[in-house]
Amino acid sequence: MTRRLIVSLIVALGLLLPLGLLAAAPAYAHEVRYVGAYRFVVGWGTEPTYVGQENSVQLILSYRATGKPVINLGNSLRVTVIYGSQSMVSGLEPTFDPDTGLGTPGDYRAWLFPTAPGNYTFHFTGTIGSQAINQSFTSGPTTFNTVQDPTASEFPLQTPTMTELSQRVSASLPRLATSSAASRAQLFGIVGLAVGAAGLVVALVALLRRRQA
Fold this sequence. Notes:
Elements: H1 3-24, E1 31-35, E2 38-44, E3 55-63, E4 77-83, E5 86-91, E6 93-94, E7 107-112, E8 121-128, E9 131-138, H2 162-212
Antiparallel strand pairs: 1-2, 2-3, 3-7, 4-5, 4-8, 6-7, 8-9
Protein backbone atom coordinates (compact mmCIF):
# COMPACT_ATOMS: atom_id res chain seq x y z
CA MET A 1 0.00 0.00 0.00
CA THR A 2 1.52 3.31 -1.08
CA ARG A 3 2.02 6.22 1.26
CA ARG A 4 -0.39 8.38 -0.76
CA LEU A 5 -3.13 5.76 -0.43
CA ILE A 6 -2.61 5.53 3.33
CA VAL A 7 -2.86 9.31 3.66
CA SER A 8 -6.03 9.30 1.56
CA LEU A 9 -7.62 6.64 3.80
CA ILE A 10 -6.73 8.59 6.95
CA VAL A 11 -8.27 11.76 5.52
CA ALA A 12 -11.39 9.90 4.45
CA LEU A 13 -11.80 8.35 7.91
CA GLY A 14 -11.28 11.77 9.49
CA LEU A 15 -14.11 13.17 7.38
CA LEU A 16 -16.49 10.26 7.91
CA LEU A 17 -16.04 9.95 11.69
CA PRO A 18 -17.72 13.30 12.59
CA LEU A 19 -20.57 12.46 10.22
CA GLY A 20 -21.07 9.14 11.98
CA LEU A 21 -21.09 10.84 15.37
CA LEU A 22 -23.62 13.38 14.14
CA ALA A 23 -25.85 10.63 12.80
CA ALA A 24 -25.69 8.79 16.12
CA ALA A 25 -26.45 11.93 18.17
CA PRO A 26 -30.07 12.73 19.08
CA ALA A 27 -31.83 15.47 17.12
CA TYR A 28 -32.50 17.36 20.35
CA ALA A 29 -31.42 17.28 23.99
CA HIS A 30 -33.76 15.33 26.26
CA GLU A 31 -33.18 13.42 29.46
CA VAL A 32 -33.92 9.68 29.38
CA ARG A 33 -34.85 7.97 32.63
CA TYR A 34 -36.38 4.61 33.54
CA VAL A 35 -39.05 4.95 36.21
CA GLY A 36 -40.33 1.56 37.34
CA ALA A 37 -42.14 -0.03 34.41
CA TYR A 38 -41.86 3.07 32.22
CA ARG A 39 -39.35 5.00 30.15
CA PHE A 40 -39.44 8.80 30.43
CA VAL A 41 -37.91 11.05 27.76
CA VAL A 42 -38.25 14.63 29.00
CA GLY A 43 -37.28 18.02 27.60
CA TRP A 44 -38.59 21.10 25.82
CA GLY A 45 -40.89 20.50 22.87
CA THR A 46 -38.91 23.02 20.80
CA GLU A 47 -35.16 23.38 21.13
CA PRO A 48 -33.20 25.65 21.27
CA THR A 49 -35.56 27.25 23.76
CA TYR A 50 -35.91 31.04 23.79
CA VAL A 51 -37.51 33.54 26.16
CA GLY A 52 -40.92 34.81 25.07
CA GLN A 53 -41.59 32.10 22.48
CA GLU A 54 -44.32 29.50 22.87
CA ASN A 55 -42.95 26.14 23.93
CA SER A 56 -43.98 23.05 25.86
CA VAL A 57 -42.85 20.52 28.40
CA GLN A 58 -42.47 17.33 26.38
CA LEU A 59 -42.87 13.86 27.86
CA ILE A 60 -42.38 10.88 25.56
CA LEU A 61 -43.72 7.96 27.56
CA SER A 62 -43.30 4.27 26.76
CA TYR A 63 -43.29 0.87 28.45
CA ARG A 64 -39.86 -0.19 29.65
CA ALA A 65 -40.29 -3.87 28.77
CA THR A 66 -41.68 -3.53 25.24
CA GLY A 67 -40.79 -0.01 24.16
CA LYS A 68 -44.37 0.55 23.05
CA PRO A 69 -45.84 4.04 23.68
CA VAL A 70 -48.27 4.70 26.52
CA ILE A 71 -51.34 6.11 24.78
CA ASN A 72 -53.96 5.96 27.55
CA LEU A 73 -52.43 8.23 30.20
CA GLY A 74 -55.58 10.28 30.78
CA ASN A 75 -55.45 12.88 33.57
CA SER A 76 -53.52 10.78 36.09
CA LEU A 77 -50.21 12.65 35.68
CA ARG A 78 -49.44 16.35 36.12
CA VAL A 79 -46.31 18.44 35.75
CA THR A 80 -45.17 21.39 37.87
CA VAL A 81 -42.87 23.78 36.03
CA ILE A 82 -40.46 25.37 38.52
CA TYR A 83 -38.28 28.44 38.03
CA GLY A 84 -36.50 29.68 41.13
CA SER A 85 -39.16 30.12 43.82
CA GLN A 86 -42.03 30.23 41.31
CA SER A 87 -44.06 27.29 40.05
CA MET A 88 -46.94 26.51 37.72
CA VAL A 89 -48.98 23.28 37.69
CA SER A 90 -50.28 21.99 34.38
CA GLY A 91 -51.96 18.95 32.91
CA LEU A 92 -50.46 16.92 30.06
CA GLU A 93 -52.13 16.79 26.65
CA PRO A 94 -51.49 13.97 24.15
CA THR A 95 -50.38 15.00 20.67
CA PHE A 96 -51.71 11.72 19.27
CA ASP A 97 -55.31 11.59 18.04
CA PRO A 98 -56.48 7.96 17.78
CA ASP A 99 -59.44 8.95 15.61
CA THR A 100 -57.32 10.46 12.83
CA GLY A 101 -53.99 8.82 13.54
CA LEU A 102 -52.32 12.23 13.59
CA GLY A 103 -49.58 13.08 16.08
CA THR A 104 -47.05 10.88 17.86
CA PRO A 105 -48.23 8.08 20.19
CA GLY A 106 -46.85 8.52 23.70
CA ASP A 107 -45.99 12.20 23.15
CA TYR A 108 -47.53 14.42 25.87
CA ARG A 109 -47.21 18.21 26.22
CA ALA A 110 -47.81 21.01 28.72
CA TRP A 111 -47.81 24.33 26.84
CA LEU A 112 -46.27 27.54 28.17
CA PHE A 113 -44.31 30.70 27.32
CA PRO A 114 -40.99 30.77 29.25
CA THR A 115 -40.47 34.42 30.18
CA ALA A 116 -37.05 34.34 31.86
CA PRO A 117 -33.71 32.84 30.82
CA GLY A 118 -32.10 30.11 32.90
CA ASN A 119 -32.77 26.57 34.07
CA TYR A 120 -36.26 25.15 34.62
CA THR A 121 -37.36 22.04 36.52
CA PHE A 122 -40.20 19.76 35.42
CA HIS A 123 -41.68 17.85 38.38
CA PHE A 124 -44.04 15.01 37.43
CA THR A 125 -46.46 13.73 40.05
CA GLY A 126 -49.44 11.41 40.04
CA THR A 127 -49.84 7.86 38.76
CA ILE A 128 -49.41 5.82 35.61
CA GLY A 129 -51.63 2.78 35.92
CA SER A 130 -51.02 1.51 39.46
CA GLN A 131 -47.53 3.04 39.75
CA ALA A 132 -47.00 6.26 41.73
CA ILE A 133 -44.83 8.89 40.04
CA ASN A 134 -42.70 11.57 41.73
CA GLN A 135 -39.87 12.57 39.41
CA SER A 136 -38.02 15.86 38.76
CA PHE A 137 -36.06 16.77 35.62
CA THR A 138 -33.90 19.92 35.52
CA SER A 139 -32.47 21.55 32.41
CA GLY A 140 -28.69 21.76 32.11
CA PRO A 141 -25.65 20.75 30.02
CA THR A 142 -26.26 17.00 30.42
CA THR A 143 -30.08 16.94 30.34
CA PHE A 144 -32.07 19.34 28.16
CA ASN A 145 -31.85 22.93 26.94
CA THR A 146 -31.52 25.93 29.22
CA VAL A 147 -33.86 28.78 28.21
CA GLN A 148 -31.89 31.43 26.33
CA ASP A 149 -32.25 35.14 25.60
CA PRO A 150 -32.97 35.28 21.83
CA THR A 151 -31.17 38.61 21.31
CA ALA A 152 -27.87 37.04 20.29
CA SER A 153 -29.60 35.01 17.54
CA GLU A 154 -31.79 37.79 16.13
CA PHE A 155 -30.90 39.18 12.70
CA PRO A 156 -30.89 41.77 11.21
CA LEU A 157 -32.81 43.63 13.94
CA GLN A 158 -32.80 42.84 17.64
CA THR A 159 -36.23 43.18 19.24
CA PRO A 160 -37.00 43.23 22.98
CA THR A 161 -38.65 40.17 24.50
CA MET A 162 -42.08 40.30 26.13
CA THR A 163 -40.38 40.27 29.53
CA GLU A 164 -38.16 43.22 28.60
CA LEU A 165 -41.17 45.15 27.27
CA SER A 166 -43.06 44.47 30.50
CA GLN A 167 -40.09 45.65 32.56
CA ARG A 168 -39.81 48.83 30.50
CA VAL A 169 -43.52 49.57 30.88
CA SER A 170 -43.32 48.98 34.63
CA ALA A 171 -40.33 51.31 34.89
CA SER A 172 -42.16 53.99 32.89
CA LEU A 173 -45.38 53.91 34.91
CA PRO A 174 -44.11 56.08 37.83
CA ARG A 175 -42.84 58.70 35.38
CA LEU A 176 -46.11 58.60 33.47
CA ALA A 177 -48.06 58.95 36.70
CA THR A 178 -45.90 61.92 37.75
CA SER A 179 -46.25 63.42 34.30
CA SER A 180 -50.02 62.87 34.37
CA ALA A 181 -50.28 64.50 37.79
CA ALA A 182 -48.28 67.49 36.54
CA SER A 183 -50.45 67.70 33.43
CA ARG A 184 -53.62 67.63 35.51
CA ALA A 185 -52.28 70.36 37.78
CA GLN A 186 -51.38 72.44 34.74
CA LEU A 187 -54.84 71.88 33.27
CA PHE A 188 -56.53 72.90 36.52
CA GLY A 189 -54.35 76.01 36.57
CA ILE A 190 -55.36 76.95 33.04
CA VAL A 191 -59.03 76.38 33.83
CA GLY A 192 -58.67 78.55 36.94
CA LEU A 193 -57.09 81.35 34.92
CA ALA A 194 -59.82 81.07 32.31
CA VAL A 195 -62.55 81.26 34.97
CA GLY A 196 -60.81 84.21 36.59
CA ALA A 197 -60.49 86.00 33.24
CA ALA A 198 -64.16 85.39 32.49
CA GLY A 199 -65.13 86.79 35.87
CA LEU A 200 -63.00 89.86 35.23
CA VAL A 201 -64.69 90.41 31.87
CA VAL A 202 -68.14 90.15 33.47
CA ALA A 203 -67.13 92.67 36.13
CA LEU A 204 -65.82 95.12 33.55
CA VAL A 205 -69.02 94.85 31.48
CA ALA A 206 -71.12 95.48 34.57
CA LEU A 207 -69.00 98.51 35.49
CA LEU A 208 -69.36 100.01 31.99
CA ARG A 209 -73.14 99.56 32.07
CA ARG A 210 -73.34 101.39 35.40
CA ARG A 211 -71.35 104.28 34.04
CA GLN A 212 -73.59 104.49 30.95
CA ALA A 213 -76.66 104.49 33.17
